Amino acid sequence: MTVYDITSGRPRPAFDTARLRQVFGAFPSGVTAVAATVDGVPHGLAASSFTSVSLEPALVSVCVAQTSTTWPVLERATRLGVSVLSADQEHETTVLSTKGIDRFAHLDWQQTPKGGVLIERASAWFETSVHEVVPAGDHFIVLLKVHDLDIDEAAHPLVFHGSTFRRLAV
Questions:
Q1: pLDDT exceeds 90 at position 16
Q2: Per the domain annotation, does 24 fall within a domain?
Q3: Residues near 84 by beta carbon (within 8 Å), at least 6 away in sequence
Q4: Total domains in the fold of the chain
Q5: How far apart are CA 84 and CA 33, in angstroms?
Q6: What's the average model confidence in pLDDT over 41-47?
Q7: 62 in Cβ contact with 34 (< 8 Å)
Q8: Which helix (H) or strand (E) holds 84?
Q9: From which residue to which does any coiled coil extend (predicted)?
Q10: pTM listed for this prediction
Q11: What dihedral do alpha carbons 39, 57, 24, 70 form, nearest 10°?
């Protein structure tokens, strides 16, 4: 298949995954923490592919890499906390993305009565359970049923755009 440059109309080489990632990065997204306690231990990951799905029933989704070693643990949880990280929580995102460390040793968090983990100072949060997991390429689309939620209207969200963290201008 020939691919054409959108501005010049001339043929150009097909894209690779590095280019795809770069172009995906042109779409700004929020950053979430998906976390729960499993066997009494908190586990979590950062996900920038969070979106609302349905009002009735109340559903949201996140996409998780099939190579994630954290997701198989989280998938066993009764409830998952989804925290929409606020503009001052870049550190939390970095910690939740780092392998081989105790991700919760230096994070402020709380556990819901059913085991979801919420990151404190988040701009919004949801308590969810796994509704359905759909394999999609090299990721899983995880549909989550919302059981409870809240918002801190004073906290602005952290935004991921162009492979960097940004803040909304006020």
A1: no
A2: no
A3: 30, 31, 32, 50, 122, 123, 124, 125, 157
A4: 1
A5: 7
A6: 95
A7: yes
A8: strand 80-84
A9: none
A10: 0.86
A11: 10
